[in-house]
Write a structure and sequence with these properties.
Blueprint lengths: L4 H10 L1 H4 L2 H4 L2 E5 L2 E4 H17 L4 E4 L13 E8 L1 H5 L6 E8 L2 E9 L4 E6 L4 E3 L2 E2 L12 E4 L9 H14 L2 E3 L4 H9 L5 E7 L1 H13 L3 E3 L12 E6 L4 H14 L1
Bound molecules: D-MYO-inositol-1-phosphate and calcium ion (2 copies).
One calcium ion binds next to strand 4.
Length: about 260
């Protein structure tokens, strides 16, 4: 299946009226411990689901906030996180993004990640490179972890992972320049892609958290694997280790020592 990246971009731009409407953020419910959903999340999901399925009938939609349907991995699938960084949105932290990927033929073929607060539109097509607002992007050329700035994701909805997680974060912090925590996994992945950080890791992300960012990063020259360095299935939950490629093997060391203990 072919999608029109320009069309998908224009639909994503149209979500800005919803994502920047502070009144909609006020309607919050808690799905789980520290896991919230607002009328912005559902509003963006409803808008994009309606518009995309009207244009691409027969396509399946795997969206965080939608009704869950049985997904056939052999068909085309749109993977949508209407707002990645909902807690940031509630706090007006201005670090959230709309994340959309098209999976077809066993791989991600088109991605967009749109941050309405910075007006940044990241796009990628398989084998076509990655772009920020139409300008080609590349990862950093940092060669060692000791010279690297690394983002960590804290798995905020699974506090039972905290002891092991923070053990590894301490080791990365000691071994690297410093660590960062953004509150949006999609944003972390495009920060690696555009060279604002050198790497990122978080346990047990969902397909809608990482699918779009994964293609953007690999098209920008980076590498995405699980903590053991193995390929990631974009349709299944996965630990995510992402980097500029140069520091990947040594970063797997942190992931490995961690993963073996859990
Ligand atoms: C979350 C964000 C956060 C990450 C969580 C995700 P949400 O997504 O990406 O940075 O730590 O693991 O679930 O809930 O804001 O869409
Ligand atoms: Ca998310
Ligand atoms: Ca979300």
């Amino acid at each position: 299946m072919r999608t029109d990246t320009e069309l998908i971009k224009s639909l994503a731009y149209q979500t800005k009226d919803i994502t920047t409407d502070r009144a909609l953020v006020g309607t919050v419910s808690e799905k789980g411990r520290a896991d919230f959903v607002t009328s912005v999340d559902t509003g963006v999901q409803d808008f994009l689901e309606r518009e995309l399925l009207a244009r691409y009938p027969g396509t399946q939609l795997l969206g965080e906030e939608g009704r869950r349907h049985e997904i056939d991995p052999n068909g085309a699938i749109l993977i949508l996180d209407p707002i990645d960084g909902t807690t940031n949105l509630i706090y007006d932290y201005r670090m959230s993004a709309v994340s959309l990927a098209l999976y077809d033929g066993g791989e991600i073929v088109t991605s967009i990640v749109y941050n309405p607060f910075t007006e940044e539109m990241f796009t990628a097509e398989k084998s076509g490179g990655a772009y920020l607002n139409g300008v080609r992007i590349r990862v950093t050329t940092t060669k060692t972890v000791s010279e690297s700035l690394i983002a960590i994701g804290t798995s905020p909805y699974e506090k039972e992972r905290a002891d092991r997680n923070f053990e590894v974060f301490k080791n990365i912090y000691k071994a690297s320049l410093d660590i960062r925590r953004s509150g949006s996994a999609a944003l972390d992945l495009y920060y690696v892609a555009v060279g604002r950080i050198d790497g990122f890791m978080e346990q047990n992300l969902k397909p809608w958290d990482f699918a779009a960012g994964m293609l953007i990063l690999s098209e920008a020259g980076g590498v995405v694997t699980d903590y053991f360095g193995s390929a990631v299935n974009p349709l299944a939950n996965s630990d995510i280790l992402a980097s500029n490629g140069f520091i990947h093997a040594s970063s797997c060391g942190f992931g490995n020592s961690f993963a073996k203990k859990i």
